[in-house]
Design a protein that fits this description.
Elements (H helix, E strand, L loop, with lengths): L1 H16 L1 H10 L2 E3 L45 E10 L2 E8 L15 E3 L2 H12 L3 H14 L2 H25 L25 H17 L7 H21 L5 H18 L3 H10 L3 H17 L6 H25 L20 H37 L6 H4 L3 H29 L4
Helix pairs in contact: 3-7, 4-5, 4-12, 5-6, 5-8, 5-9, 5-10, 5-11, 6-7, 6-8, 7-8, 9-11, 10-11, 11-14, 12-14
């Protein structure tokens, strides 16, 4: 009976891993590929030789999957208008011919053309997938720290960094490639050369909103159903967007969702102890640096170079910088969390002055962080290339060396994290914006 249950479970997993389900969902949402006519769609349920078991990352060339669309049509923001219309009931639906907005991070492939029949879903799921990308967290964590609740932001960064490490490291051990195209349409190709099991977008898109909900409910006054509904909607939007983009199978998204809940269940009870240790213990800076660097070395040793290595080091570097800044703030008496007697917190009346002050803090702070990142990027890679005797004229090639990429990511993003938590609040105090 046990073996029968295991076989049934394996069959269900194979079924959910089938890329044909991704292709069907994309067609349902109005995304259609421009594949060569000679390609024939496989029958659902038939084994795909590239699906089960250990699968190698695909190094796609820039010519692979090039569609048969009109390359001469001018593009705007990755999309180009098509004169074709598709009748749908009483009205005709305008079709947009598009290409992925960003090139493949490893190969530089621009991707194939595809047709969008539903612009609303395209923009909705593009927004959803951005909720798991670097730029969103550069905006979200600082806004939360500077304008709402520094304690919640500090602890969210801890969960985010560990979530990235666990998810990316698991990818490099499982080594499953992205869903096959065709039949899947690659609406996004930036991460297409990385492994895909589990979906780290689904992991961060689940861990962050639910951790935010658990940290703020009871600390802030708001209805339970409202907070839970926002967290669930956020998670579902990110998870579904990864299937829409053609980056993950249904199984990989479900696994990422459940995996993140497991990680969250482990860290949630000890977040308070971790946060207090980072701030108060005299050996905390040494422990922070050693632990985060060690985890980065483990992640970099699992497989060959890809942007997932950099994403892991980036998250760990940001976490290390934020933790070190929290320690410095506490030791200098600059950390002013509200006392427990003031809980639960309530939002102040929303006035024009409050909104303008928050927006001004946010604009100045993000400008400082972006400038810091730009300067550190411009300085760090040439310095590391010179240090290790590597040519610095090809930055992409140089960063595929672990001895360049790992310290580069740590140095740049630890400084960004430190600036966010320590330097920018001091700047606000100087400008009378604290």
């Amino acid at each position: 009976m046990a073996s029968g249950a295991v076989n049934k479970f394996v069959e269900i997993c194979k079924y959910l891993q089938d890329p044909i389900h991704v292709a069907r969902f994309q067609r349902f949402c109005g995304v259609k590929g421009t594949f060569p006519e000679k390609w024939t769609q496989p029958v659902s349920g038939q084994p795909d030789p590239d699906c089960p078991g250990l699968r190698k990352r695909v190094q796609q060339s820039s010519n692979e999957g090039v569609g048969n669309g009109d390359a001469g049509v001018p593009q705007v923001n990755g999309k180009q208008e098509d004169d074709t219309v598709r009748p749908d009931g009483p009205a005709a639906v305008e079709i947009v011919r598009a290409k992925p907005l960003r090139r493949n991070s490893l190969t530089g492939d621009v991707g194939q053309e595809f047709l969008i029949h539903n612009r609303f879903l395209f923009y909705l799921f593009t927004f959803g997938t951005e909720l798991g990308n670097e730029m969103f967290f550069i905006v979200f964590f600082p806004f939360l720290f500077w304008n709402i609740d520094a304690l919640v932001s500090r602890r969210l960064i801890v969960v985010w960094a560990w979530n990235l490490f666990v998810g990316q490291s698991t990818k490099d051990m499982v080594r499953w490639s992205r869903p096959a195209s065709p039949p899947v349409v690659k609406v996004e190709v930036f991460y297409n050369s990385e492994y895909s099991m589990p979906s780290t977008h689904a992991m961060t898109g689940t861990a962050i909103p639910f951790c935010l909900f658990m940290l703020t409910y009871g600390r802030w006054q708001y209805p339970f159903l409202f907070g839970f509904g926002v967290a669930l909607s956020w998670s579902v939007l990110v998870c579904v967007s990864r299937v829409y983009m053609g980056m993950h199978s249904v199984l990989e998204v479900i696994t990422g969702f459940l995996y993140s809940l497991l990680v969250l269940a482990f860290f949630q009870p000890i977040l308070d102890k971790i946060d207090n240790y980072y701030m108060t213990d005299h050996y905390a800076p040494l422990v922070i640096i050693m632990s985060h660097v060690s985890l980065g070395l483990v992640a970099f040793s699992l497989d060959s170079w890809s942007t997932s290595r950099g994403d892991t080091a980036q998250g760990l570097g940001t976490g290390a910088g934020a933790a070190l800044a929290s320690h410095v703030n506490y030791q200098l008496g600059l950390l002013q969390d509200p006392p427990l007697s003031s809980l639960p917190l309530t939002l102040p009346p929303v006035t024009t002055g409050l909104v303008l002050r928050s927006l001004l803090r946010f604009a100045i702070g993000v400008a400082v962080l972006l400038a810091t990142r730009m300067v550190m990027k411009a300085v760090t890679v040439p310095f590391l290339c010179r240090l290790f005797g590597l040519p610095s004229d090809d930055v992409r090639q140089a960063r595929q060396q672990m001895k360049v990429e790992l310290p580069y990511r740590y140095i740049v993003y630890s400084v960004v994290g430190f600036s966010c938590v320590c330097f920018v609040p001091i700047l606000f105090w100087i400008l009378n914006l604290d």
